[in-house]
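User: Predict the complex.
Assistant: Input components as received:
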Amino acid sequence: MRSSGAFKIDTDNTFQALELESEAKVDGETASDSESRVDTASLPPSADDTPEVLNRALSNLSSRWKNWWVRGILTLAMIAFFFIIIYLGPMVLMMIVMCVQIKCFHEIITIGYNVYHSYDLPWFRTLSWYFLLCVNYFFYGETVTDYFFTLVQREEPLRILSKYHRFISFTLYLTGFCMFVLSLVKKHYRLQFYMFGWTHVTLLIVVTQSHLVIHNLFEGMIWFIVPISCVICNDIMAYMFGFFFGRTPLIKLSPKKTWEGFIGGCFATVVFGLLLSYVMSGYRCFVCPVEYNNDTNSFTVDCEPSDLFRLQEYNIPGVIQSVIGWKTVRMYPFQIHSIALSTFASLIGPFGGFFASGFKRAFKIKDFANTIPGHGGIMDRFDCQYLMATFVNVYIASFIRGPNPSKLVQQFLTLRPDQQLHIFNTLKSHLIDKGMLTAAPEDE
Amino acid sequence: MRPGKPFEGETDIDDRYGDLDSRTDSDIPEIPPSSDRTPEILKRALSGLSSRWKNWWIRGILTLTMISLFFLIIYMGSFMLMLLVLSIQVKCFHEIITIGYRVYRSYDLPWFRTLSWYFLLCVNYFFYGETVADYFATFVQREEQLQFLIRYHRFISFALYLAGFCMFVLSLVKKHYRLQFYMFAWTHVTLLITVTQSHLVIQNLFEGMIWFLVPISSVICNDITAYLFGFFFGRTPLIKGCRVCFTLLPIHPLKRPFLGSAVLSFISSFTKLSLSPKKTWEGFIGGFFSTVVFGFIAAYVLSKYQYFVCPVEYRSDVNSFVTECEPSELFQLQSYSLPPFLKAVLRRETVSLYPFQIHSIALSTFASLIGPFGGFFASGFKRAFKIKDFANTIPGHGGIMDRFDCQYLMATFVHVYITSFIRGPNPSKLLQQLLVLQPEQQLNIYKTLKTHLIEKGILQPSLKV
């Protein structure tokens, strides 16, 4: 029912056929599963990829409900998988994020190859993966140096690698760049430049987002779980509301999205976010920053929860007071932040989805790939998350905390002595001004 | 030498996107030559010469004009240099985007011109905000509104970018999805190339004008001397020389391991390369040696003056940029003992050099060996899109981007070199970040720093703590 990776570049007619079909969809039907549409004339119908087990179990249902069940079961499977990984801890989460990133990169690059028929270009597959490796090395090196500072300082080879990290990463990238220039072949310059541009834009999208996700994760698992769950919840709620109440189409790009689904999803997500943050703020393992403990050589999440995660009394504004009948309510301050996160997830997150829909329409593909039956590729599931990770990272940096103190200490230690003294004195006078330190005249 | 308008003769229909993408280069017709843009005055002055020499003279005169303009701006100071870098960046962006419009004939796409310039503005705002906040810390602390802008700088920049992103999504028009995505990607790659490089240049500049002048001059010198050596002595094109070396490789055909055959297939694809046929090995090697010598001498000359050597600082009392400081060790003459064979040649025991001159050898080597790859990249780009020059701005030379294509990699290299080998992080930025922390964190850091400084003996321990 859904297209596989092999598709043809279409002509005029098919483009129009795709458009006409979507018009019909909007007029007659409610928000139903796009997969149940009949394939357009040009895309060859591919084999059904649902596992045999599911096929047999659902063989007697009609095709529309069968699809719904397949999607439902896979959704539950993915959510269960998500919970298992959370249970396994931050290290496993980091690895999963990395695998998802590689798979997304692979999916988008494969689309590029198919678009440009450039699978046979010399060296290009190697170069794309090489650039992915370089950029990942650069980003992981920066993160590892920050968080594993003491471990890195102990091991001699690691210390050198981290001291000259930028230089080494730049050299690796430069090698790839020079190989690209040397690999330019006479009749294929344009294709090669297109693939070079395609690779770089994909790296910009996929790799930077995944590293911001890991930064959020290290801030505290709650900063990773709540945003992702809000986006997933928004997806599901908007779908449900649209399915049951959907009537007014939202945007031409995604004809199955409706205003009822959008608004219903927004409210449901905010409520869900509030509840989820209330539940999670109680547990240290979610709330504390992830730290690497040198003695036990593992990650620990143990700390004194910050102010954000301690219950406080808030006065309810008059309007709600009459409705609920309470004067004050006890909430975690984090729940206020979660409202901001959920609002972003429901209002702006869908733009990531529209972007991906536009991309799929532009390149005439149904799904990014065929990995998850009923859902398409990994990228299909993560397109709305795209903007969320950056938003959370920017939000944390701007409103929650400043720079990382241990990183600052590291940077301080690399300065010259006179610069160190200057900073130390300025800090001292600042602290004395604030009253945190008493002025001691004997100090130089 | 003449910039051209691409795609005059194309007949493909707009909607046949597949053909646009998967056509090989040979299907695209050549560009018709456009009109000559040399100013009238030059034409009259050189009307008597033959066309080859006339071209040479035009290029020569324009080169000298550009170099004198460069000197003039250096004299005017770092602020003018910053403005110059900014204008060059905007012009390069404009040139590359215009090429994109022509390639995709998307000049009439709704909103796209506005969005491209908007994204340029956003990214510049983000980068300048980060730099300005660091270097103008004292100035910024005074003004209240600037404080607010600095504190939430990332959030504001992200919100601005997001607004542009949402406008892009909302502007997607039914029949033009693919074109719009292409232009979106084209804009982003151009931003990545031009804007990040220009900001690295400005950061190098703030480190000390010498870090800006020596690399740029090395690249320009390499261009000019490689051209001159090639003009007078050039005989072996780069490609042929490679083929000769390839045949000399001592690998028995039957015994090639997998890696060996991969390397050989790579080299054989290189020999088919025909980018820049006018570049020759003589020019390349001659340019390399001249650039190293030039860099060495330029570093020696410039290291003497505080104006070039000191980091640029903003003094709030005089409300301007000053370059006054105690020159660091890099810029103080030191004696180096010569290795024995040089001792015999020069008949001296030691030589006094600035340590910076050693670094300048590294910079010049990069400029002559790797810098040309930026030029090959730009040549490949021009061949891919069948254009002679990026634009028409400078008569005899093409567009601004034509002059700056080799500089592209140089700026990043210098920045990475400085951060890895020369100095650590910026002290004022560090101080600013310290002041933003929570008071308890500040106190902790204060204590850690104090113990560290006492250990190192920089601070004398006091009796009362």
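Chain B touches chain A through 90 residues (CB under 8 Å).
Let me know if you want any component modeled separately.
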